Amino acid sequence: MDLIQQLGAMAFASRLKRLSERLHKDVSRVYSKQDVGFEARWFPVLYALKEQSSQPVTTLASSLRLTHPAINQIAGDMEKQGLVSSTRDKKDERKRLLRLTPKGRKLIKNLEPIWNIIEKETRKILKNSGGQILKSMDKIEASLDERDMYERVMDKLKKQYFSKIRIIEYKPQYKKHFKVLNYEWLKKYFKVEQTDERVLSDPNKYIIKPGGFILFAKYNGKIAGTAAVMKHSDSVFELTKMAVTASERGKYIGEKLAIKAIEKSRANGAKELILHTATKLKPAIALYEKLGFERIKEPDLDLPKFKRRTIVMGLKL
Fold first, then answer.
1. Which residues lie below 8 Å from residue 42, measured CB to CB, with a gap of 6+?
2. CB-based burial label for 131 (10 Å; 0-12, 13-18, 19+)
3. Biggest alpha carbon distance in the chain?
4. Mean pLDDT over all residues of the chain?
5. Cβ(64)–Cβ(114) under 8 Å?
6. Residue range 25-60, pLDDT digits in tens
7. Which domains does the chain have, with CATH numbers?
8. 16: helix, coil or strand?
9. 246, 198 in Cβ contact below 8 A?
10. Are 66 and 58 a contacting pair, CB within 8 Å?
């Protein structure tokens, strides 16, 4: 039984990797048997340098569509074998130039007869398979260039998670969740300060009565996240005390809470929504930037003061 074959599209990448490793292994055996001192994984770089014997690493990475670390690793191994040399570009010291050495050029002459046979045998295999594999791969890569697999999968996951998340308004029975959820992340990254304690212990007094609101996210029937919006003036509201329980992070709960908070703030007449966050909370900052928030100066308002170092971000509504 070939499980990867049976899995079909689900294991497409695994099957490509398996096929690639199989071909690399066979070709490497050929190089070893011929005692030419060459590895199959070096081929793209050596061939690129054959076409143009001096190239920057950045150019090679771009033309071969490999990462800079991958090119550097291959180049390092080839340099140890004396096949290439590296220097800094005189015009730009940040660029590393790779050049074929005389030994590298001589190796290419020895390898070309082997490459010709490998190409012919590969063409036979492709022809026997229908001859459309290379064209299909071109189309696959073009499709991934248009929208990569990460974006495709995450977009579908987001829709699935969003459909399971229910945003509800504050009720007295949810008060304990507001405190517990915020305590969880505050204790992990900072300390619970007096300002936090005051608001979390009496959200009705400090958030609801002054004109703000609190939202909760239910996921699989359980309270999994919360976010509050404090009203500082008729036009300026503050998104604050947003927290998602650790076990449910990565499921877009925070994003749906933030979107609902923005919508409700706008509906309540806010012209600007601000927030405090810390530079160490990079996922949170990435979310806020995705939603349109930008870093701003501290507004001239009586905002809560924290000992922890924070920045202010704002969103025009």
1. 74, 77, 78, 83
2. exposed
3. 83
4. 91
5. no
6. 999 999 999 998 899 999 999 999 999 888 999 999
7. 3-146 (1.10.10.10), 157-316 (3.40.630.30)
8. helix
9. no
10. no
Which residues sit opposite 272 in a β-bridge? 236, 316
CA atoms of 240 and 274, how far apart (whole Å): 9
Side-chain half-sphere exposure of 148, counting CA atoms within 13 A: 1
**Quick one: tokens of 58?**
């950045």
Residue where the block lists tokens 């295999």: 125
Residue 156, C-beta contacts closer than 8 angstroms, at least 6 positions apart: none
Six-digit token pair at 264? 């409700």
Q: How many residues does the chain have?
A: 317
Find out whether 264 and 215 touch, Cβ atoms under 8 Å.
Answer: yes
Give the 3-state secondary structure of residue 311: strand
Is the pLDDT at 259 greater than 70? The verdict is: yes
**Spatial CB neighbours of 115, under 8 Å, sequence gap ≥ 6:** none
Residues near 39 by Cβ (< 8 Å), separated by ≥ 6? Answer: 28, 31, 77
Amino acid at 153: V
pLDDT range class, residue 88, cuts 50, 70, 90: confident
Give Rg (Cα) of the chain.
29
The neighbouring-strand residues paired with 230 are 238
Instruction: State both tokens at 313.
Output: 């971000």
